[in-house]
Design a protein that fits this description.
Blueprint: H1 2-11, H2 16-31, H3 37-49, H4 53-58, H5 70-86, H6 90-116, H7 129-150
Length: about 150
Amino acid sequence: MARDVRADIETMRAADTDRQKVADQLKTALDEGRLTLHEYDERVSSAYASKTYQELLMLLTDLPRPGLSASEVRARHEAEQRRRARRLPTAMLVLWTIWAALAVVNLVVYALVEVSVETDIYPWPVWLAVPGAALAAVTVGVQVIRSQQRR
């Protein structure tokens, strides 16, 4: 549905103010040295001749947002790559979610039994530490292997 909304917006007709905003962004790109004067003239002409938002957006696709330097763009890109590298694979997230759900259920049941029975009972939720430790070891191993593959 979000794709349909975007497609609808892109095919809508642009207003004069929209064309002016794109021309201002192109002027900023020219001032920052991202466009040559010839490229700027071509794109501004195309901007004022554009009829839809899609035609306007195509003039800006290869330009970063105004005011960003190349080092800022590179830093953001590297930060995104680091974030992506730290992210666990989906299978590991599923396993951790299952383990956490089981741990919570066991702890709640244990707490309810402990409160309702007057004698001491065996603390069986302690055994959840074994699969938790195994899962932690596998997670560390997966992350180490992934970091070695990136190098």
